[in-house]
Specification:
- It is built from 14 helices and 18 strands.
- The chain is of the alpha/beta class.
- It folds into 2 domains: 152 residues, NAD(P)-binding Rossmann-like Domain (Rossmann fold), CATH 3.40.50; 215 residues, 2-Layer Sandwich (Dihydrodipicolinate Reductase, domain 2), CATH 3.30.360.
- The chain is globular, with a radius of gyration of 20 Å.
Length: 386
């Protein structure tokens, strides 16, 4: 089997490539990135005879598709704004595909995947991705589902890379239409910092106040759980407190609207300038606590009894006590590992059918959890009667 690791010169998907080296059965692992020099550095870091590096530009669709052609699966680690274009390349190459974000730009290419007999799963990292597996694991144990609360704490710097800065500003864009909740059969748009809720994460994270974010779980879970009568789905997230304080200030002062200002006679977006500063500053690239914490709560009934299920996850600490999980890698490995697991599942033909599939349709939660556990990422389950 062959896998094309698109964008794997980045800080997150290089961890996906490492996981493929350490755990997968791929015979060929190609690091494809526009930054060829960095791709070569990643290939040297992986230090495995199966690994090679190539330069690729997904804006040159036909050239990129030709480079991907012949691979079993493309594991797409490119940023949100490229996912429509990168998925077009994968579709035209005739490969299976999976990416980290899943914001909907991929869906237009469904006919290509169906015709080729291939499957594409948009959005499979920690969130979205693993969170859907958690919600379905709990929901599958209930006769009816009333409420689903998906939450996560992403403990990482504001701007350790340009793509992460882009994600941060995208999710809190005041005009973003996809920031919605699902309530009584309808998707309702909400503003940034809507519906604060206290979520207790495992230590060392503890109690956090989280707000609605524009993640695909809201839409995919509404589809997956429609036959169980679900009436409320809310997806929340948080970053380290200093990050949240900064984003709140940028929002309150209208800066997240990215107003145009003049700098030396040139019109530039104010948020663009701030993002560039943060990417190149110590404050933007560091934080006190690193890691990831998922928390999913489902309320429903079983045999006429109302029940609440909670599932959360833990992973090795970032304090250096476990090799390979130090500092920022406690965050990047959490995101990157599920992507690698999904890529191998697709290459092995585990998905039930061709086309664009939501994670809930594509994968079995317990199989994903078993693979995560091999990587020291553990699920913890709690049930109470209401």
């Amino acid at each position: 089997m062959k896998v094309f690791c698109l964008g794997a010169a980045g800080r997150i998907s290089r961890e996906s490539a490492l996981d493929l080296v350490q755990h997968s059965s791929f015979d060929e692992i190609t690091i494809g990135d526009y930054n060829y020099e960095e791709a070569c550095r990643v290939a040297r870091w992986l230090d495995d005879d199966r690994v090679k590096a190539v330069k690729i530009d997904v804006t040159k669709t036909e050239e990129a598709a030709a480079l991907m052609s012949g691979y079993d699966v493309v594991m797409d680690g490119t940023q949100i704004t490229l996912n429509g274009k990168s998925t077009e390349c994968i579709a035209k190459a005739g490969c299976h595909g999976v990416n980290l974000n899943g914001f909907g730009e991929e869906n237009q290419w469904a006919p290509f995947f169906e015709k080729a007999g291939k499957t594409c799963v948009p959005g499979f990292g920690m969130t979205p991705g693993t969170t859907q597996m958690m919600a379905m694991h709990l929901s599958n144990q209930l006769d009816t589902v009333e409420e689903v609360y998906v939450s996560h704490g992403a403990f990482r710097p504001f701007a350790f890379s340009k793509s992460i800065t882009e994600t941060t500003t995208y999710e809190y864009d005041p005009a973003l239409k996809s920031r919605v909740v699902y309530e009584d059969g309808a998707f309702i748009q909400v503003p940034p910092f809507a519906r604060p809720r206290n979520v207790k994460l495992p230590m060392p994270y503890g109690d956090t106040v989280q707000y609605i974010i524009p993640h695909s779980e809201t839409v995919t879970l509404a589809q997956a759980l429609k036959d169980k009568g679900v009436r409320l789905i809310e997806v929340r997230g948080t970053w380290p407190m200093q990050n949240m304080n900064l984003v709140r200030g940028l929002y309150d002062y209208g800066i997240l609207k990215n107003p145009q200002i003049e700098v030396n006679g040139t019109q530039v977006g104010l948020m663009t300038l701030i993002g560039d500063y943060l990417v190149n500053s110590q404050e933007g690239k560091t934080t006190k606590l690193y890691g990831y914490a998922l928390h999913v709560e489902v309320v429903g009934t079983k045999d006429g009894e109302r029940r609440r299920g909670i599932l959360y996850h833990t992973h090795p600490a970032s304090d250096g006590s476990v090799e390979g999980w130090e500092g920022l890698r406690a965050y990047t490995r959490n995101v990157g590992i599920p992507l690698a697991i999904a890529a191998e599942q697709l290459a092995k033909g585990c998905a039930p059918r061709a086309g664009i599939l939501i994670p809930e349709e594509a994968f079995n939660p317990e199989e994903i959890f078993a693979e995560l556990e091999k990587r020291q990422i553990y699920m913890h389950e709690e049930w109470t009667t209401l």
